[in-house]
Amino acid sequence: MNAVSPTLAPPPSTLRHAAYVLRENPLTAVAAAGASLLCLVAVFSPWLTPYDPVASDVSVALQPPSAAHWAGTDQLGRDVLSRIVAATRLDLAIALSAVGLSFALGAVIGGVSGYAGGRLDRVVGRLVDVLMAFPLFVLAMALVAALGNRVENIVIATAIINLPFYIRFARAEVNVRRDAGYVEAARAGGEGHLAVVLRFLLPNVLPAMAVQISLNLGWAILNAAGLSFIGLGVRAPTPEWGILVAEGARFITTGKWWLVAFPGLALMLAVLCFNLLGDGLRDILDPRMRT
């Protein structure tokens, strides 16, 4: 009688595995819900703001939170909640654009240098070391001051200061994997070197980089808010979390706590959600976790 060989169950689908990860990690589920809510607020902010975020009405200036103005009003009578909601779109747009740009460039540059090795790898490594020798926020300040405090320049400066993280990470991961069996098989099958990096190596590095992507989103939001707080970022009266905190800080000693508390809370929750989301993204995207 022939023995029946056991068959391995197929790995779960990405959606089923994501649901499992969220069930087993309550903090990840909360962070994912918070990040999703922020994205929805950013997309639908023009329809969610109860008042015009830039329209002033001095007759209701510096009113505390009430039924008419849930987060109070500022020194010009503008609704604070409306300005926070409107600022969500701008801050997330800056963060996503900057992180997406730095991730794409950093992954390719790091992947190519790690795969090539030799002199190219050493040159890229030294350039990254030079960039990381500067305090990154000070470097962002210098870049924005030199280029001008426009939104696109804030995105470029934020992308540049995040670039070394992705170059170093991709360079190290690809350097470890460049002699793996599947890479040798791809080369033997006639794949060019660039195709090997883009089609075989970088997709295997992505799960490990998911944590860095999520963390960098939080850092990018803080960087944009910090630049605006010191006057080098987005210009008033455009709603932006850093500007709202800077404007509210002038009234802390007078008891107008809502001017800084609510924008600061929104900024803190956004950064916290993206920081907590990183580990969950790694578990969802890494095929080795699907057992």
Automatic annotation (TrEMBL):
UniProt keyword tRNA processing, yes or no: no
Keyword hit for Cell membrane: yes
Transmembrane domains' residue ranges: 26-48, 92-115, 127-148, 154-170, 217-237, 257-278
Cellular location(s): Cell membrane
InterPro entries: BP-dependent_transpt_permease, MetI-like, MetI-like_sf, OppC_N
Membrane association type: Multi-pass membrane protein
SUPFAM superfamilies named in the record: MetI-like
Keywords: Cell membrane, Membrane, Peptide transport, Protein transport, Transmembrane, Transmembrane helix, Transport
Main location per the UniProt record: membrane
ABC transmembrane type-1 domain span: 88-278
PANTHER family according to UniProt: D,D-DIPEPTIDE TRANSPORT SYSTEM PERMEASE PROTEIN DDPC-RELATED, OLIGOPEPTIDE TRANSPORT SYSTEM PERMEASE PROTEIN APPC
Family: Belongs to the binding-protein-dependent transport system permease family.
Protein name according to UniProt: ABC transporter permease
